[in-house]
Amino acid sequence: SRQELGPLWPVYPLVLILLLSSNSSRSGGLESLEENAHSQTPCTKVFVNGVWMGVHRDPANLVKTIKKLRRKDDISPKVSVVRDIREKELRLYTDAGRVCRPLFIIENQQLVLQKKHIKWLNDRYNDEGEEYKWEHLVKGGVVELLDAEEEETVMISMTPEDLENSRLQQSGIDPTANDGDFDPAARLRAGINSHTWTHCEIHPSMI
Length: 207
Hints:
Elements: H1 2-5, E1 8-9, H2 14-20, H3 30-36, E2 44-48, E3 51-56, H4 59-71, E4 80-84, E5 89-93, E6 100-107, E7 110-111, H5 115-123, H6 134-139, E8 143-147, H7 148-151, E9 156-157, H8 160-170, H9 184-192, E10 199-200
Parallel strand pairs: 2-5, 9-10
Antiparallel strand pairs: 1-3, 2-3, 4-5, 6-7, 6-8, 6-10
Helix pairs in contact: 8-9
């Protein structure tokens, strides 16, 4: 809804922008935006498929809202959102031809994926007897599809083990204290990113 997304100048319904961006005019409204832009106003430019659509005063909340809508299947899971803080730009991509790959979503240092999801996949039905497929992991906010642009803005754990090591380190426990055979590079990687994981790689056998 417009209330969730906050003010976007000029005010366009964001869902309309996302659905019709491939057919939108590259000139309609763009010149007036340039003429009326206030350089002293702390705003972030919003682009859809490379076309400047407006500006937003709360880009962090806008990104959060778009991702929330995407994970609830309210908008297409293949919509990509990239925030460039340095350039003060927020770029949305809805065009065809982008290569997207699935990643597990991590929230509060925990995989959203649970054993019940795996059981439902194996059984092909959930507990309510409804058909359950891989696509339901995406629609349910368990798996996220990211293209190359958005992938550059997230932190990806290579394995669930790295994620577990990060949780242990946050608790003050050294996960390698009693392990004589470990990879120092892997330990360092987990330590550096212990507070920043947002996604986890999916083993090819699960796809």
